Amino acid sequence: MIRDIQKIYNRLLNRIFLLFARGILKAIDDSGKTQKVQTICLAGETISDVERFEQYGLSTYPLADSETFTAFLGGNRSQGIVLCVHDRRYRPDYLAEGEVCIYTSVDKSTNHRILMTSDGKIKMYGDKYYISNNAEDLIDLMVQFCEAAENITVATAIGVQPVLNKATFTALKAKLTAFKV
After folding, report:
1. pTM
2. Running DSSP on this structure, what letter comes out for residue 95?
3. For residue 123, is it within any domain?
4. Domain for residue 51, yes or no?
5. Edge-to-edge, what's the strand order for the sheet holding 130-132?
6. Do 24 and 40 form a contact (C-beta atoms < 8 A)?
7. What percent of the chain stands above pLDDT 90?
8. Which helix (H) or strand (E) holds 152?
9. Would you say residue 148 lies in a domain?
């Protein structure tokens, strides 16, 4: 009887050990309604066609050799669901408490990201551009542009004349100012 209990205990323990696994992402099939991945878990155990669950409103296509965390229903290795994909090679490590960053990197030289800062700003970074302003700062800059354009004049035979339609820029400035909270 003790041997029977030991067998049941060992089977249960094995199932518990098989419930979760860390692995390495090797391939992705993004053609269906749910991504399917191939991950290598345990000691070289290759598991294919594993569904990868994603958060609503956010879809990603992780890089090969990212890390996976997979759950197996009832410890059955053919019933896997990838719960999380992590890539420590490119994860931003400079965030302040409460900040959020959406990022992508295809190698160490590229670093595209949108950073939502704890002070309410949104900063966007890319290879050839950088925008770091809250909406009011951007509107202020556009209003300044309109004011500068309103005042452009040129000397003519009949006197100094505006080069651009001042009324158009005055109207644009009013619309921009209306965006401010």
Report:
1. 0.65
2. P
3. yes
4. yes
5. 100-104, 112-116, 122-125, 130-132
6. yes
7. 36
8. none
9. yes
